[in-house]
Design brief:
This protein is α/β, with parallel strands linked by helices and 182 residues long. It has one domain: Rossmann fold (3-Layer(aba) Sandwich), CATH 3.40.50. The protein has five helices and eight strands. The chain has helices at 3-17, 35-40, 94-107, 123-132, 149-155; strands at residues 24-29, 44-51, 57-58, 62-66, 80-86, 108-119, 161-169, 174-181. The longest helix is centred in the first third of the chain and has 15 residues, at 3-17. The protein starts with a helix and ends with a strand.
């Protein structure tokens, strides 16, 4: 990752952690190197991070698992307070998003939070320009499926999740969505 990627990641995760209650158990889908857990520090009770591009790792506070969610982790146990998908869902095939959201519903405690960030349509050309001039490495930018916020509203099952928060951040280039598990 380049400095630009790290800055974007930090800005995104600062938005996310505002909605994570203290002493939470967290599943971070697309966790990268587990930086969210490092940011939370003592606020984290326990965390599990899942990412296709990481080596397995375990510490006192969290565990990182290499693989793809949910396919490689059918045995994850329910009971998470929070599930985070920061800059992840737009990389999933559209036909798989409903399955991923249903599995998140199964893994969350009632009243648990599903926190998603997704780029706005404005972000794509800016990110492509930043990639072209070398400010960012792109973090799988070529794998964006074109998912938009309005599409996500239609895909999710309203009986599984209630919308708690929808905000724009990073000058409107990203959406922050927080759902509560019904």
């Amino acid at each position: 990752m380049k400095t630009g990627d790290l800055i974007i990641r930090d800005l995104r995760l600062k938005q996310v952690i505002r909605f994570i209650p203290d002493n939470s158990t967290i599943l971070d889908i697309g966790c990268g190197d587990g930086y969210l857990f490092k940011l939370l520090g003592d606020r984290l009770q326990w965390g599990v991070g899942v990412d296709k591009d990481i080596p397995a790792f375990r510490s006192v506070k969290y565990q990182l698992l290499a693989g793809s969610f949910p396919d490689d982790f059918p045995d994850l146990q329910p009971g998470f307070d929070v599930i985070v998908m920061a800059a992840v869902i737009e990389h999933l095939p559209l036909v798989k998003i409903s399955l991923v959201l249903s599995r998140c519903h199964q893994l969350l405690k009632p009243g648990g939070r599903l926190i998603i960030t997704i780029p706005s349509l404005l972000a794509e050309p800016i990110l492509l320009l930043m990639l072209k001039i070398g400010i960012i490495a792109g973090m799988d930018l070529d794998a964006h499926t074109g998912l938009r916020w309005d599409m996500l509203k239609r895909i999710r099952n309203p009986n599984e999740f209630h919308l708690m928060v929808h905000q724009h951040f990073e000058f409107g280039f990203n959406h922050l969505i927080v759902y509560i598990r019904q």
